[in-house]
Amino acid sequence: MNSRNKFYFLVFKIEWVEILHKMGISTGKFERRSGLLFSRCFFHSEKTPSFVFFQKTGTFKCFGCGEQGNKLRFVKLFFHWDSPKTIRWFHKCFGTPLPWKSAKEKRRVSKK
Q1: What CATH number should be reported for the domain whose range is 3-111?
Q2: Residue 87, CA distances (Å) to 8, 41, 71, 106 in order
């Protein structure tokens, strides 16, 4: 398995609750039904929960505004980050391997 596939595989395995806690989001007021987490949307104002985290697929969807995606997209949208910064956050918080070679690894390979 190459480093990119390994990264995505490991991110998929991380529970939504773990990611949300690392982001500083309390899940105490979330509704749990049939293995799903329901919440108010993080991207628009609403009074009733229409935002769902799907653990089996590693995705989310807001049935109010239509925003949807995977775990990387959620963190990226929430913090307003680009993809490399989001990937580094997962690496720092969960120890996932970076899906690219670091400059140090590239130098080591080129010396051989």
Answers
A1: 3.90.580.10
A2: 10, 23, 11, 19
The residue ranges of every structural domain in the chain are: 3-111
Residue 94 burial (CB < 10 Å; 0-12/13-18/19+)? middle
pLDDT at 24: 96
pLDDT tens-digit readout, 9-63: 999 999 999 999 999 999 998 999 988 999 999 999 999 899 999 999 999 999 9
Structure confidence at residue 107 (pLDDT): 60
CA 55, 56, 60, 61: dihedral to nearest 10 degrees?
-130
What is the amino acid identity at position 109?
Answer: V
